[in-house]
């Protein structure tokens, strides 16, 4: 991808208010954001930053997808969030003291991001307090998502964990069909989905097959899942 193309797409998304934290800005204020941002590209599997790194910039996803992970006590990867176009990351050290990151950010697919330095972003916040409010709103939303994930992982029922994940994916990535079914373009592969649920990959495959045999879902290859009945998924969680 050329830098010019990346710049054009980023500017277009900002002007279209597709980056939530900047949606309250005027065109003149957006110009300021566009003028101070820089660009970085990452191939699938590359890290934006790792646990222990000191992050001194805000990342805004322009294209692609990023998973936020944390190492468990036994050295395994636990996926705690999935971010896509318009989402931001690296905000912890931007807003507070520069500390070592307690999470890693890995590109799930080829990804381009816009970055804003700590100094430029703090100046932007000072001049535009509405960004602070939007930022807090987005961070609160993520906190709720992490709390939901923690609650899900504390449930020893693997079916409930998987159903929670599928319902979350349906909400964030699902496309409702005419017949009321929901088609999900999966953001993660099977191994990553198992990590997200905190279960073995074999368990995930077995439970997905069970849900499919009951007619609740339909797997379309490894990239898509169609949910035939959202209510039945919710019943597994109750």
TrEMBL record:
Matches recorded under SUPFAM superfamilies: cAMP-binding domain-like, Winged helix' DNA-binding domain
Cyclic nucleotide-binding domain location: 21-142
UniProt entry tagged with the keyword Transcription: yes
InterPro entries: cNMP-bd_dom, cNMP-bd_dom_sf, Env_Response_Regulators, HTH_CRP, RmlC-like_jellyroll, WH-like_DNA-bd_sf, WH_DNA-bd_sf
CDD domains: CAP_ED (cd00038), HTH_CRP (cd00092)
Classification via SMART domains: cNMP, HTH_CRP
Origin: domain of life: Bacteria
Pfam family, one: cNMP_binding
This protein's GO CC annotations: cytosol
Keyword vocabulary terms for this entry: DNA-binding, Transcription, Transcription regulation
GO molecular function term, any single one: DNA binding
Family annotation (PROSITE patterns): CNMP_BINDING_3, HTH_CRP_2
Domain HTH crp-type: 156-231
PANTHER family noted in UniProt: CRP FAMILY TRANSCRIPTIONAL REGULATORY PROTEIN (PTHR24567), LISTERIOLYSIN REGULATORY PROTEIN (PTHR24567:SF28)
Name of the protein this chain belongs to: Crp/Fnr family transcriptional regulator
């Amino acid at each position: 991808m050329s830098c010019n193309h990346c710049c054009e797409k980023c500017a277009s998304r900002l002007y279209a208010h597709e980056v939530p934290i900047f949606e309250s800005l005027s065109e003149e204020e957006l110009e300021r954001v566009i003028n101070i941002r820089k660009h970085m590209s990452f191939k699938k599997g590359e890290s934006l930053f790792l646990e222990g790194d000191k992050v001194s910039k805000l990342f805004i996803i322009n294209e692609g997808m990023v998973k936020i992970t944390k190492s468990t006590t036994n050295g395994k990867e636990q996926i705690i969030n999935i971010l896509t176009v318009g989402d931001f990351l690296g905000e912890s050290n931007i807003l507070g003291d520069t500390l070592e990151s307690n999470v890693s950010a890995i590109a799930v697919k080829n990804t381009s991001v816009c970055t804003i330095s700590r100094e430029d972003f703090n100046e932007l916040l000072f001049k535009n307090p509405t960004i602070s409010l939007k930022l807090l709103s987005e961070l609160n939303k993520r906190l709720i998502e992490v709390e939901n994930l923690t609650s899900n992982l504390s449930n020893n029922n693997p079916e409930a964990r998987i159903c929670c994940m599928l319902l979350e994916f349906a909400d964030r990535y699902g496309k409702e069909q005419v017949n009321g079914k929901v088609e999900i373009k999966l953001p993660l592969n099977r191994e990553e989905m198992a990590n997200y649920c905190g279960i073995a990959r074999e368990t995930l495959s077995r439970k997905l097959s069970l849900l499919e045999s009951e007619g609740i879902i339909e797997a379309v290859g490894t990239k898509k899942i169609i949910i035939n009945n959202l209510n039945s998924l919710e019943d597994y969680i109750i």
